[in-house]
Amino acid sequence: MGPVVSRAVRVFPDLPAASAGLASHLVEAASAAVRDHGSFAVVLSGGSTPQGLYRLLATDHRGAVPWARTDVFFGDERCVGPRDPRSNYGSARDALLSKVPLPKNRVRRLRGELHPPSEAARRYEREIGPLGAPDGSPFRFDLVLLGIGPDGHTASLFPGDPALTEVRRSVVSVPRPGREPKVPRLTMTLPALAASREVVFLVGGADKAPALAKIFGSGPRGTRSVPASLVRSAGTTTWYLDGPAAAGVPSPDRTTSNG
Fold first, then answer.
1. Does the residue 183 lie in any domain?
2. What pLDDT does residue 5 have?
3. Is residue 25 part of a domain?
4. How many structural domains are present in the chain?
5. pLDDT digits (tens, 9 = 90+) for 134-185
6. % of the chain beyond a pLDDT of 70
7. Cβ atoms within 10 Å, residue 120
8. 154: which residues sit within 8 A by CB, 6+ positions away?
9. Which of 30, 120, 123, 148 is 20 to 30 A from 77 (CA-CA)?
């Protein structure tokens, strides 16, 4: 993977403030994408960290997002059914997707309930389509939302996992994830995440500071020991951090925001 084209760090007092800042940015990105090419393709993240962001988008910003022209994808999924509390799609559905006027046919979920997981991965590859637009540009997604774990993993790309070396496929199965819950996963690969106009990370908590220190200290090429350091975008990569998480980021890289 090549070096990051552009990286920015925005630090907020707490996770709710970081989520509010990112919600405003996402609204702007969606509107800009629709003006530019008629639709907005966004990749959502799972876990607990983005739940506040999703609730803001479903309430304060509900009328500002062009939902009818928005296509929703998922960066990873646990191999469970959509009603399982461990489902990334399920948590996003409950906090956001079921509460906004988003056409159901524009939600492209990873089907974690399908077996074997490799077949679910192949189906999502077909649904995503070629990694690139018909006009030859490198973009498939307008904005990719990611988080990180305390071990530096992102999506379901774990330290040292073979999925990190995948260069041809856009979605793969991860039979033995490195973190709980230890059920098989499905994940977009690094080339798929890189087929984006923009990547944004939302990270909160002091337990993430050591991983962020490793990410920002890994150099321009990144390292497989902290997979988030390997994520690239065709455009910008922006980190939205709360204060405790940002303790791991060198001061010269940060921009402090009040909201």
1. yes
2. 43
3. yes
4. 1
5. 555 667 899 999 999 999 999 999 999 999 999 889 999 999 887 788 899 9
6. 93
7. 21
8. 146, 147, 148, 201, 227, 228, 231
9. 30
Tell me if the bond preceding 101 is cis, omega within 30° of 0: no
Domain interval for residue 70: 6-198+209-256
Question: Considering the domain boundaries, does residue 43 fall inside one?
Answer: yes
Per-residue pLDDT band at 1 (split at 50, 70, 90):
very low
pLDDT tens track for 230-242:
999 988 999 999 9
